[in-house]
From TrEMBL:
It comes from the Bacteria. It comes from Massilia aquatica. Residues 32-124 form the Knr4/Smi1-like domain. It holds the Pfam family SMI1_KNR4. This is SMI1/KNR4 family protein.
Length: 237
């Protein structure tokens, strides 16, 4: 389980590495989520929240850098269940009304300021499949053009999609590839078989491991904090 202390310890490395603006990594934690709120979120999403993320929600709520998406640095945001529920229950335009916890494509739209560029590339069936099978729940702001989007799939596996708005065709291809690794809908597979089928399909592709759902939540979050530290640490030859 990822505890509050674990998050603080991972974040402390970023604070120590940043000799210029360490305050940008000030952390804020949401109130721990109740079992009732998590169940309500699962109902709205029509998907089970993986045990690792459920434990994080109940242990320390969620967390974010207070200065998330400020222009001078990389920061992380994982919204609390209460905030997600409030947003999901508020009717509105798909792009402007979406929020953490929704399908991956809708989540990208929301964090991208509602731009419709993806609609010109991804067909409706792809968007539907990705939104139903990959649920985004957090984000690392890298710069105005590039974000890392954290998600989990119906097998309870975690992944990260790096989205660069200047590489729209390439990033759209990565989103389409997430559909390719899904088991065909006409196969009657149990959870273990779906898991094995997905992992087998992922092995076919040569994309970086953080594109596909194959990490634990601990690995994903540790990777994100380590990437921040690497980005602000002096190069060593």
């Amino acid at each position: 389980m990822i505890s509050r202390d674990t998050i603080i310890a991972l974040n402390a490395r970023a604070v120590a590495a940043d000799t210029e603006y360490p305050e940008r990594f000030d952390l804020a934690f949401a109130a721990p989520a109740t079992a009732q709120d998590i169940a309500a979120l699962e109902t709205l999403l029509n998907i089970r929240i993986p045990d690792q993320l459920r434990a994080l929600y109940q242990e320390c709520g969620a967390f974010r850098h207070v200065h998330y998406d400020d222009s001078y640095g990389q920061t992380i945001a994982l919204d609390g269940v209460g905030a997600v529920l409030e947003q999901l229950r508020t009717a509105g335009d798909r792009r402007y009304g979406s929020h953490a916890g929704q399908g991956l494509v809708d989540f990208i739209h929301a964090h991208w300021g509602g731009r419709s560029d993806l609609d010109d590339i991804l067909d409706e069936e792809t968007v539907k499949l990705v939104n139903e099978n990959y649920i985004a729940f957090g984000c690392r702001y890298i710069n105005d053009d590039v974000h890392d989007y954290w998600y989990f799939d119906r097998n309870g596996m975690f992944g990260n999609l790096r989205f660069d708005q200047d590489e729209l065709d390439y990033n759209s291809w990565k989103i389409e590839t997430l559909c390719d690794v899904l088991p065909p809908g006409d196969l009657a597979l149990d959870a273990a078989q779906r898991h094995a089928h997905t992992l087998g399909n992922i092995a076919i592709y040569s994309e970086p491991h953080d594109t596909f759902p194959g990490m634990t939540l601990r690995e994903l979050i540790a990777y994100q904090f380590a990437a921040i530290v690497a980005s602000i640490s002096p190069d060593t030859d």
